[in-house]
Each structure stands twice: as C-alpha cells, then as structure tokens.
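Example: Signal recognition particle 54 kDa protein.
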Amino acid sequence: MVLADLGRKITSALQSLSKATVINEEVLNSMLKDICAALLEADVNIRLVKKLRENVRSVIDFEEMAGGLNKRRMIQSAVFKELVKLVDPGVKPFQPVKGRPNVIMFVGLQGSGKTTTCTKLAYHYLKKNWKSCLVCADTFRAGAYDQVKQNCTKARIPFYGSYTEVDPVVIAQDGVDMFKKEGFEFIIVDTSGRHKQEESLFEEMLAVSNAIKPDNIIFVMDATIGQACEGQARAFKEKVDIGSVIITKLDGHAKGGGALSAVAATNSPIIFIGTGEHIDDLEPFKTKPFISKLLGMGDIEGLIDKVNELKLDDNEELLEKIKHGQFTLRDMYEQFQNIMKMGPFSQIMGMIPGFSQDFISKGSEQESMARLKKLMTMMDSMNDGELDNRDGAKLFSKQNGRVVRVAQGSGVTEREVKELIAQYTKFAAVVKKMGGVKGLFKGGDMAKNVNPTQMAKLNQQMAKMMDPRVLHQMGGMSGLQNMMRQLQQGAAGGLGGLGNLMGGFGGKQ
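Written out as structure tokens, the predicted fold is:
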C-alpha cells in the first residue's frame, strides 16, 4: 500500500526524537520539516500542512514546559492528534438500522470504481448477516448491468436491473420497491457516472434521489486525483445531499494522503476505503485506528472486531474441547476457515502493533492463502474417523496407507501430507498446554488470572511455531506476550490468539 510510504516517513521523523540527546527547538523544527515534506509529497494541500505545523508548534512551548514532563511523548502525542484532525471532518456518518429497509444511493464520476464498490459494500453487510442487495440504475454506460450481474452472481448478492428500460428513475424506483416488499435491509442503488461533472449527470442524480428518497447518498472518489478530490466533493455536495464518502484505489497511488485530507476538508465523513480489486478489499475507515495503523502502532480494536465477527465465542463445543486440551484435525480445518473469513492477511497484519500493512506483499499474501487452501484440500480427502479422532496424527503415522490415500485424493505428494500432520501435531501440543493453563479462558486481565510460569511456557511453544519474520517484527517473545495480553483483555476469550497464531502459520514458507 503506497500510503505505507507516508507512514514510514512520518514514523522515521518521530523516531528522530528518540535519537536526540536533548529535545529543543532545533530538533522539533527538524522533525516538523520532515513530516511536512512527507505530507506534501503525498499531495496533502499546503494550507492543511501549514495548519498542522502551526498547531503542533502552539502546543509545544519549551520555555513554559515543566521540567518533569516527557517532551518526546508530548510532541509525539501532539503530532498524532493533528494527523487525526487532518482526516477527521468531525461529522458522524449515517448508521443503518437493522430490521428495516435502508436505501443507499451511490454517485460519482465514471472510472472511480463506483460499481465495484457497490458490490463490495453489499458483500460487507451480507457477511454481517444483513439482507443486502443491489439495484443497477446506470443506463448510461454500456455493460454496466452486465458488470453488476457478474459481480453479484459471484458474491451471491440479489440484484435488479433491466436490458430494455432506459429510464434510470423507473429502474431505481421499481428495484427499491421490489426489495422493500421482500424485506431487504440494505438496498444499494448504483447510478450513472460521467467522465466529467456534467449538468445532465447532476439532473439525473436529483431525479433518482427524489424518486427513491435514499437514507444516505455515498459519493465514490478516486484517490489517484489527490487533493483535487476537494473540488469534486464540493461540486457534488452542492447538488445532492452527500452523506458520506468512499475513497477507492488507495492501494496503488502516492496521492492517497491528499485525497483523504481533501475530502475531510469538505466535512464529508469517509466511511470506507478501497484497498484493492478483490471483494474483501474494502476497509471501514475510522480516523484514530487509521493513523495508528499508518504509523505502525497497530489497531487492536479492529483486530478484535475481526475476531468477534467470526463469533468464535459462540462455538462452545470447541472452547470446551480446548479447555480440556483436545484438538482434532476437523477443529484445525474450522480454524483455517475462520482465518479465510477474516480477510486479506495484509489487513490483519496491519492491525497488529509493530507491523505495517505492506509487511506481507501481495505475492506473499496470495501464496499464504493458496497454502491454506491446499491444506484444506488435503483435509477434504480425509474421512470422518481421521478428522474427528483425538489423536489423528497417530492414525497416519501408524498406517502409511492413509497418507497415500489422502495424497492421491487431493493431488499432492505424500511428503506434503506428512508436513500437514506434523503441523497439526504442533498445534495439538499447544492446545494441550492451553488446557493446562488455569485462568486462560476467564477473560479480563490475563496477568492476574494466569500463572506467569505456565503462560511463559505456552508463549515459548507458540513462538516456535510462528513464522520467524512475524515473531521478529512483533518484538520477539515480549511482543508476542503483549499482543496476547491485549487480545485477551479486548476479546475476553482464548481463541483470538489461536486464530492469529494460525495466521502466522499460513504465512510460513
């Protein structure tokens, strides 16, 4: 993600404070100069950069600062707050209400990724158990309905459109009415775009808006135009009541910072950012976690949300088995399924403190996902007796015929099947140790609940299994312990750490 370059430069500037023996005006000015240069390079408006610099300077007064204060921490805190302000318009976005129809209208210029983003948002809510659907009211662009049809069919999202009707108002009205009658909760209406801001586009938008009376109008913005986003957002806001903004293509352009800050300057809340072409590449946008991730400080709140989305705590049977140190091959298969549901590895890694979102490259990420799928394919070739046996590893070690059968059934080598069984043996050993650690599943403060010696042994066992790159960037054993503690406190459950451990396994080469 190109925004990571901006994050690295700002982090490097902040780290210069730690290297300085004395914190004074000269050090502060040098740091601010580097931060401002990085922001300008990311196409952030010079007016906003100047304001950030002035605000930090106004907070930090060395002459009036008390002797016992931590100057480094005060400066870092001031910079963090100003960076948050840069992308936070201070306006609360629309919150859909479950159990009733929420009509969402999409607007934007052609080529901004509007139609693809419609599908991504519908899929996002579908995963959260909302009844979501999509209406294609784009009659201007040839192939628009075909694109919606293809995307929605692939993602299993109900859709509505017409090859014969040419009036977008009629299509939008009919589609919304139909889905309301069928009890849908999240109804997205995709409208026509243009190559530029034309009066005919605005007239059509108004007509559709007046007909369907949307609860929220989302403006889709292309990040590659940088700070020019501000003019576009203002032009659209003057014509229709823009409720929120989604910025696309943030994964591949240096002007992403400019786009984010420019939209915030129009007082339009950014609700999601598009970070890739895949249907999962849509991230909820929250200002503090975003800046925190940008600077490599992680987003534990987001990571816990991801874990909670899987409803791991609902799986009482698995929790009970782990409490007693039991873990079958089927349990491992189900955990792999959960990892796949959590979304791209790079997003997950960016949420862990000390990691940047580009820690796993796109190539490595695809390799990791392919590796997990391959492991699951092998397990698909196993029978119920093998998957549900409390000591499945022994079955395969004693009877090599089982290894041969699974290898032939899944199209892999016998060596690969044996490697899978070896990894399962390691996981089962960790779970056995987890079952023996009293207080691990109580939730709350792990330091108070768990015997430190037992926890240290468990962490050592987990560290042996993890990708060395992952463990190193976490900060070694102490970093792993800290992450486990934060996950335990936030998720109040014992499976978050196990899920992330398996993520580390998925990334292992």
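The longest strand covers residues 216-222.
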